[in-house]
């Protein structure tokens, strides 16, 4: 089983997670920018975070054989803080960076005018940068929030196939599916979706434009939920090819629209020996040491 | 120099040799021309270099991750900077003279400012590109007339260092400089960038900071710690330019102490540490 987790916050996870993810078949991830639990107080705090998403975190993932990509955005929650909104002027230069495969997470949290404005502005940045968009849907008042989300996306003029609407459930999947956008499901231990309900929706709606992620972060979550959903699909009678489509080819096709997705194996990585102390390649040692 | 693999900084000075290694050589030609015509084209070209030029190692057989000698995009980015440096500083009468650019010194200052911004706004690969570009400018050696300025002395004073820590005096033999020095504005701008890279834990950044620029411009204390850090990180010391010329008794002492520490812990002595233990300079 090969897996591209299309939404996971690795900054909040440990190296044990990276090892377990590789063992479960995860070979690539996309880490969207979001809030850190503790509110930020300035644009500079965001740029350090963005630098880390395209820098240190990518390096860390590579030590475990996993290709790391990022989506960059001002998240909806912090769009409400004027001190943070200033980061919008910094975002275009990040959208040019290697490995930045989307604008995201954008969307609504509390559906305020400030969120509305930041959302629309960033859809425009996505259009200018020719990037797809990862859209978060709100936890509270989800159905109304999802409707509103689709309206804003339509107003932006972005083609529906460039938009992935995430955190969907039984009540919101039809809206997104019918709009021709990609439908994302975050499989969590006790909130959002679980494996069985996700598989039931795959039965009902098919495997086209359907995407599964763990959305693992600093909250109670599980970076192996993608693999567990794949196993649940197999147990329910889906084929290996169906699983490959949902867990690998679908997210690869969506983010591949950026022209910035790299999915070939990490050079120099030797499976089973992360972070590979003592690796030798034709007598020359590479990336072999401890962290100084 | 025969037998020494050409690093990204070296290849940046030889576009004809670099071109066949690139995924899209046409892009390379266009980008260099664009940067030479308009320096503001540099940031975008820098960001796109990995996708257009490729990201493979320059010496796949011995350096499969491109950490030691650099990658194809490292060399391409450095070549873009060389293209800009050549225009900014070698053409005394730029067809559209910008205010204040008549003095050669200011041209070097402008280049220094651009490199600093590129580094701070760059991702890891772009930062490597800046460091490898500094290497290329040092290797180019006979700096263009407009780039001739006052070289910064190799050993800086370090006011923040505790007065109780006895400073090892630098070997005064700077006449045997391992590489030519850059004009003062470029050296002054480049040193903090190299120091920033040396604080990183990304092995490719640390390795890119110990090339010819680091060999010529980092002070002795910083340079020795950089070499030792590579041993800790497990990056082959082939990454260090002019290692044998710059290695001194103090580095040998640090290596001996590290070896003693590792023996006491029951750990191996890596071959690169053994190499440092062989330093016999006084």
TrEMBL record, chain A:
Protein known as: TatD family hydrolase
Keywords per UniProt: Hydrolase, Metal-binding
Gene Ontology terms for molecular function: hydrolase activity
Xref: Pfam families: TatD_DNase
Listed CDD domains: metallo-dependent_hydrolases
Family: Belongs to the metallo-dependent hydrolases superfamily.
Automatic annotation (TrEMBL), chain B:
Protein name: EboA domain-containing protein
Superkingdom of the organism of origin: Bacteria
Organism listed in the record: Myceligenerans pegani
Region (Disordered): 146-186
